[in-house]
């Protein structure tokens, strides 16, 4: 397991955005004794309310949505350089309702340091986020081409705005 150290979010933002477009990252959440992870390829990093924020979209139909809707936190675990590709594919195509993704993929959890939700061990970058806001996308406010392309099945996203409390990365 790589040794991670605390870093400034801006030092790793470009790497996170690149990885989201090339294979995704693990969104992991804990609610009471239930823990699930899913692959995300979409996220936004920036500043809101004077805080560093990571916004992750989760479709209403996803098992992770059931957990994150009640949770106070989430983590974003980012593997780099092609690491954990098979695991990202699996966690993006299977539901935690039906399978134990951790045992099926051999994924190990690393406890959150500043939050309750754990992260995926072996990733190069980890964001620990405290949920500040939840917002369901409003279909009437979406551009028609977005609505047609991404929401033909009416399975809209809920956006979870997380204050990035801690950012960890492998030392360079």
Please tell me about this protein's structure.
By secondary structure, this protein is α+β, with helices and mostly antiparallel strands. It is 23% helix and 38% strand. The chain is built from five helices and ten strands; from the N terminus they run βαββββαβααβββαβ. It has helices at residues 13-22, 63-70, 85-93, 101-105, 144-150; strands spanning 5-6, 25-31, 34-40, 44-48, 51-59, 73-78, 109-110, 119-120, 125-136, 157-169. It is globular. It starts with a strand and ends with a strand. The model has no long low-confidence stretch (mean pLDDT 93).
Key words describing this protein structure:
single chain; alpha+beta; Pnp Oxidase, Chain A; 8-stranded antiparallel β-sheet; two-stranded antiparallel sheet; 5 helices; 10 strands; globular
């Amino acid at each position: 397991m790589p040794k991670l150290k605390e870093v400034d979010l801006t030092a790793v933002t470009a790497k996170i955005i690149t990885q989201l477009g090339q294979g995704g990252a693990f969104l992991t959440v804990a609610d009471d004794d239930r823990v699930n992870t899913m692959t995300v390829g979409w996220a936004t990093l920036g500043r809101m309310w004077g805080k560093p924020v990571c916004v992750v979209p989760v479709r209403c139909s996803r098992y992770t949505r059931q957990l994150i809707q009640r949770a106070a936190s989430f983590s974003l675990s980012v593997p780099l350089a092609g690491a954990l590709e098979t695991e990202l594919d699996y966690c993006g195509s299977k539901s935690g309702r039906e399978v134990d993704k951790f045992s099926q993929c051999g994924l190990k959890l690393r406890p959150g340091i500043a939050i309750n939700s754990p992260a995926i061990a072996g990733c190069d970058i980890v964001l620990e986020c405290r949920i500040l806001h939840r917002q369901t996308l409003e279909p009437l406010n979406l551009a028609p081409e977005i609505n047609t392309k991404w929401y033909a099945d009416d399975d809209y996203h809920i956006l979870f705005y997380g204050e990035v409390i801690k950012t960890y990365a492998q030392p360079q």
